[in-house]
Structure formats: structure tokens, C-alpha cells
Amino acid sequence: MADKHTSQRELFETRPAWEEDDRRHGTVATVVLPEGVAKPLDYLVPESLAGSVEPGRRLRVPLGKSGRPRVGYCVAVTAGELPQQPLKEVIAVEDERPLLSPRMLGLTKWMSERWMCRWGEVLEAVLPAGVRAKAGRRSAPVLVRSAAEPARTLTPSQAKVLACAAEPMTAEQLAEKSGASRAVVSRLLKNGLLEICDPARLARAKPAAGSGAAPPVLSERQADAVEAILAPMRARRHETIVLFGVTGSGKTEVYLKAVEETVAYGRQAIVLVPEISLTPQTCSRFRARFGEVAVLHSHLTPAERHAQWKEIAAGSVSVVVGARSAVFAPTPRLGLIVIDEEHENSFKQGTAPRYHARDVAEWRARSEGVPLVLGSATPSLETFQRCLAGEWRMVELPQRVGGAQLPAVITVDQRDPASRSRGPVSPRLQAGIGWAIESGGQVILLLNRRGFATAVQCPACGHTVRCPQCDIALTFHQPGSRGVCHGCGRVTRLTPDCPECRSPSVSLRGTGTQRLEDQVRRIFPGARVARMDTDTMRSRGSHEKTLDAFRDREIDILVGTQMIAKGLDFPSVVLVGVVNADAALHLPDFRASERTCQLVMQVAGRSGRGPLGGRVVVQTSSPDHPALRAAATHDYEAFVRTELPIREALGYPPFGHVVRIVVRSVDDAAARHQAGQIAERLRAAAGGPPTSGTPSNVAPAAVRVLGPAPAPIARLRDRFRWHVQLIGPDDAELRRIVRDAIDGFATPDDVAWIVDVDPVEML
Q1: What is the homologous superfamily of the domain 220-402 according to CATH?
Q2: pTM
Q3: Structural domain spans, the chain
Q4: Cα dist. 755→100, 121, 192, 715 in Å?
Q5: Tens digits of per-residue pLDDT, 222-271?
Q6: Average pLDDT over residues 677-699
Q7: Burial 560-572 (b: 16+ CB within 10 A, else e)
Q8: What is the DSSP letter of 472?
Q9: CB atoms within 10 A of CB 300
């Protein structure tokens, strides 16, 4: 009986012959547009394009009632019965071959869900602009000197250009290096004295930077660390290894040896560094070992980035070194990912998609079954806790290589008036600098404040000159007596009198790197001083040029911001001075103590790497703070033991997650109102009753909604800013709450807001 009913049901569900004409079959391409439409759209693939439409290629498709052509990313192709509603057809295929592999498409989809942004935004971020350029379009030329000798007299500018054109470089680079205008370069190109070559040669033409010396012999601890990395690599399985080593413990040599083995197995390695200033040094060390190395960072031109991308995708380059975005390098044979200085905030993208390269690297390493190495002398508390919980494996390098000792740290209490009697350089720091110079050593001075003075204030009425567009005091810059807003970049010409009360003089408060450099030059007129901050490092190659000069002993004292605080290895540095260790210690950010401890310990580690040993002088008004006590004793674990219980009690990372929503508007009341509505919807979505002015912000299931409140920087770029924070133990639950709260939420035209999942800064 059962068989009879089954056969009757099958007969009923089978379409009769007279219905067959209503069945439509075909191929459907699912397309994600970069902007405007959040959800993927389906399009019919015409027979003429059926063989060329595949996931990873870009397609030209019509959008909306007008059918305006747009370019989107094909993320899936399905064949079979078509839906009843008619579909618009794909117009054209933009790419000769897929730009993204299926695994990378999976990564981008996960990123859009993880950081709550549009899938199209992620796809645009993963693919560099040069790679997205239409196939066949000529990239910016890379120039080399012509093989023919000039038959006519050259102008001095032309002669300089040709003299600098021995190595391949872009027209912009050549003009900058020679000091000539771009027009001179263009004329030489037109006259045949310069020729165009393949941009890919820019990477291949660079010789290895090393001397060819044999690699140093690894210590027992280093050898154990290398083996911990290689064991999962050989087994083709994923494992995250945290290399926790004091500064100067030889972490880079461990990376080099692990990458060397990876390459020997015929696989590729990706090495991420946090600062562009570290890229030249890292590239030099890797080129010395491996020869050709691909480099990916923000200072490359689109043509250079495209050339590197093609080389990597073709598998002809085994080692990729770069900043945050290099985590997306299209390596077809990935075997290892390394993130150096993994604690650095620069691994978090500041604009949409607001991803963290460490999380992306873990997803990618896990999906491809390869090890991930996170190295730091001061690991982030999130990383440290995952090791304590047994999720990741920690391998320690507790001693410096070669038996070198960590430098002694001398703390100068700035609360003592005698310590402030000579401006930003205390008598003790001044004596230390003099000792270092007389000993034939070099000095690094860290001050994480740009400009000459951090504020301009009237001593008569107390007025502080502020940016008219931001809630930020203007920073005084020289030359030109300029007031610069470090929030929006606005430059204002400052007058010597007070704009409020017309008092004839104003005072310059606080110290920036310009003022520090000026004082150091006055105190030590015979010393060669250089400054390294974003004001002096604007031109292409300036980082490399300055660091090379410092390495070659052409600079005695290097003054700079945090870009000189980590990763740099200069054996002749015998003194490091931290001019103001409290610069970020008391900011309204729960990570302020962690960042201060990391920064001071990192810059202290630049000292004492050579045979002369070293000293560190830390100037602070908070010598008893746990972060600075730990830094003074090179005991990062002591800080971790102090800080983790505080984070756990508050439910902050690494024991919880945070989603921050920032609302902006030219109208303060509108921003406040919109932030209040978002907060109410979040509380409702979290299961708690709406509150109106009540002191409790705690919703059920340990989820807290804080705010709305003015952001610490309440006005930026002429926009008032209010923020709301959602805190809880489960990140997936927090994202669910945010999605429920913002679903169908209408926003006025004069209000904008962003969602930042697991933010690293709260200003």
C-alpha cells in the first residue's frame, strides 16, 4: 500500500508533457555590486557569454528600471530551472580570467558578516585599484635608460635624469630622484632617450641587499620555535603560534628560517609588518636570504601594485612582504603567514571594511591548512588570553641573542620641578645623550606628538586656539607659524596676538617633535640630528633614506614619533629617551594603559643591541602606574597579570566584545537624537526595556548598551559626533542585536553613522 501511494505521489509531482513548455532552463550569475545595492542580484547569462562567466570575474550588468550599466563581481554561477520572474541579462564580461579564487570569495563574504559591512565594499578593498583597472589599459610606465648614447647636447636637467635612470622606476620616482620636472622626463621619453619596460621588472630588477654571508646559527630556543612552526606546515594543518620574545631575541631570524623551509617545500609565505617604515628593513633582510621578494604597501603606484599582484598570482614570487593589505596577496601555494609586531593598531583598517588583519590571517590560514605566526615582545591582551585559554600556542624567547642584556631603565619623575627646569629634555636625559655621543653611540628620542607646540594659549584670558571644524586644539607648526588641526588637516595662519581678547602675545604650550628637535640641536650643536614623523616622511622613499642614513652612522640623534619605536635594529643605539611616557596614558580608552606599556617597552628595546650595551631614560609624571612599572623592568607579563582581571571585571576584550556605533551630523541635536534612537533600538533588540534617562544600561544576557554620549572628540571635520557602545561576551549575538536594531531604520539625509565591530580606538 505504501508503495502504491509513493508511486502515485511521484506521478503527481512529475510535470505532465503538456506543461513542459513552461519550464525554462538557463544559467544564472549572482552578482555583488561595489556600492548602492547591499544584497547580491541574479542575472541571466546569455548563451554568447556562457563560457566566460564564472565566479571571481567582474561582469557588466544593468541596474534598476533605467538599466544603467554597472560593473559587479560574479560570486556564484548556477545552471538549471530559471525562476518564474524574468531576469535581466549580463551585458559583458570585464576580465579575461578570474580575479578572485573561490576561497578568497569565501573570505570576503565572511569579512562582510564579521565586520557588518557590504560584501561589495570588501571585494573592492581586497582587490587593489591597479588590479581592477580594465584589461588592456596601459599602466603608468616604468622607465629605464636607453641603450643608445645621446647624439646631441643635453641640458643639465636632462643629464641628471639620465644619470639616475640606470634602474627601472616610474616617471614620478625618476623626476623626484633627479630633482627634475616631470616634463623633462616626458621629453626624454618622447625623444627615445628613455624607454618603457614591463612594470613587473621593477620588482625583479632589485638585487639582493645582503652580503651573502651565511645565516647565523640559531640558539636552542630559536630552533625550538622554528620547529614549532614547521611541524604543522609539514603536516599541512593549521595552528596559530604566538612567538613571545623580548626585544632583540631573534624573532626575525626565526621568521627567516621558517620562511626558508616553507619555500624549500615549494610553497609561498606572507609576512606582514605594521609600519611602512619597517618595510625597507624587512625587505632587505628577506631579499638578502631569498633574492626576489614581492612588496605590497600603500606607497606603491597602481601600476607597481598590479605588477606585484600578477607576479604573486602566477606563483613566480615565493615571499610577499607588506603592510595590512598584503594579507590578501593571491598566493596559489600558500604555506605560511607571519605577522610581526602583531599587537599594533595599524593592522586594523580605519575605514570600511573595518577588518583586522590578524583575524583575516587566521581565517585564511585555517581555511588553507597552514600555520599562522604572531610575533611580538608585547602581545595584545586578546592574543595573550587566547594562549592562556589553550586556543593558541605560545613559544617564548625570554633572552636576547648572543647573551646581550636588556638595557637598564632609568625613570625620571616629571613631578619634580628640577626635572622640568630645562624644557622637554630633563637634566638626566641631557646627561645621558651627552654620554652616548661621547661614547661613539647613537640616540633615539621618542615623543609621540607632532608639531612644535601642542597648543596655543593666551596667558591673559586663557583662550586656547581651536580648529573651527573640530573639537581639537590647533598644533603649532614651524616654519610659517601655522596652526594645524591633526583631526581634519586644516591649516590656519596664526597671529602673535590673541584672537579672543587681542592680548599682544600668546604662549606655546606643550612639546612636539619639532620643538624637541630644535632644543636638541641647541644643546648638542655638533651632533647630527634628524626627525622622523609624518611631517618629514611625506615623500616617496623618505623612510628608507632616513633609516639608511641612521644605519650608516650619518645621523647621531634620531627624533621621532611611534614610527621609530618598533622593529628597528640598530646595534649602535646606546640610549633611548622617552620624552613623555604619559602622552596617551590617560586617554578615555580602555586600551590606553596597554598601548602605553607596549610603546615604552618597544622603544626601550631599540637600545643595547650592540657590544656597548645601552640605557633607557623614561620621563613620566606617573612612575607608579602599573604599565610604566612593567615597562621599566621589561616585565610585560606583570602588566598582563595586573590588567587582565580589570578587563574581565568590566567585560571588555579579551573577555568580551564591543560594537561601537558613531553618529555624525552638522547638527548636534540631530546627531544626538539619532544616537538616542539607535540606543533605544539596541536595548529593545537585546531584550531589555527601553530606558529614558535611567542610570542602568544593562540588558539581559550580560549585554550592555552604553550611551548615547558625545564621542571623546565631539566634533571632527565640521561634524558633531555621538556614539553608542554595545558590550557583551558573544560577538555573534552582538552582531545579531545590531542587525535587528538597524533593520529598516531610516536615517535623515543630514545624519550619517558607521558600525565598528571590535574597535581598537574609542576616540
Answers
A1: P-loop containing nucleotide triphosphate hydrolases (3.40.50.300)
A2: 0.85
A3: 26-78+85-132, 142-198, 220-402, 404-449+511-647, 657-757
A4: 26, 14, 53, 18
A5: 999 999 999 999 999 999 999 999 999 999 999 999 999 999 999 999 99
A6: 67
A7: bbbbbbbbbebbb
A8: S
A9: 20
Using a 10 angstrom Cβ sphere, with 0-12 exposed, 13-18 middle and 19 or more buried, the burial of residue 1 is exposed
Is the CATH code 3.90.190.20 the one for domain 657-757?
no
CATH superfamily of 26-78+85-132: PriA, 3(prime) DNA-binding domain (3.40.1440.60)
Contact 742, 678 (CB under 8 A): yes
Q: pLDDT tens digits, residue range 106-128?
A: 999 999 999 999 999 999 999 98
Q: How far apart are CA 27 and CA 29, in angstroms?
A: 7
Task: Give the C-alpha separation, 64 to 66, whole Å.
Answer: 5
Q: Which of 406, 403, 290, 272 is nearest to 342 (CA)?
A: 272
pLDDT in tens, 522-564: 999 999 999 999 888 887 778 888 888 999 999 999 999 988 8
Mean pLDDT of 639-649: 96
Upstream peptide bond of 468 is cis (omega within 30 degrees of 0)? no
- Asked if 220-402 and 404-449+511-647 have one fold, the answer is yes
Taking only the tens place, the pLDDT of each residue in 563-578 is 888 777 889 999 999 9
Cα–Cα distance, 441 to 574 (Å, whole number)? 6
289-304 confidence digits (pLDDT tens): 888 888 887 777 777 7
Phi-psi region of 451 (alpha: psi -120 to 50; beta: other; left: phi over 0): left
Helix 220-234 and helix 251-264, axial crossing angle in degrees, nearest 10: 30
Amino acid, res. 727: I
State the architecture of 404-449+511-647 in CATH terms: 3-Layer(aba) Sandwich (3.40)
Q: How big is the chain, counted in residues?
A: 763
Average pLDDT, the chain: 87
